[in-house]
Write a structure and sequence with these properties.
The protein has about 150 residues and is an alpha+beta fold. The protein has helices at about 15, 20-30, 35-80, 80-85, and strands at about 90-95, 100-110, 120-130, 135-145.
Amino acid sequence: MKLGNGERGTGNNSSLHATPRRALYSRFIGGFSLLEVIAAILLLAIAFTALMQVAGGSMALSGHAAEASKAALWGQSKLDGMTVIEPLRVGVSEGQFDTQYRWRLKVTESAAADTTPLQLYRVDLDVLWGSGRRERSAHFTTLRVQ
């Protein structure tokens, strides 16, 4: 059989319409489809959002830890300086360290052995900060002798 371009065929017309395998795969070698690109961008957006939420939560926890550390320093300062200026008095007192932190102190007599002339006091200190539903506190308890 004679083909239009001067070549002889094998007599099988189906070979004229068959596409070689290379031609089939060369269509996919050129790049990604639009659907694949959109799926990849969506996956990256989801991962980035999750990462930002974790980073934001980490920053919030870091802020809470800094506030609690500052409250502990204020509490330690208050407990250390309690008997320097005046002796302990049984009762409740309150005050403020600064615009954010305030304190509440409760001093009670503790049951001590009758064989000692010294009086033992239980000191409970609450350091408070924040307001309303976001109010936080740190509680410190110690025993003092006077």
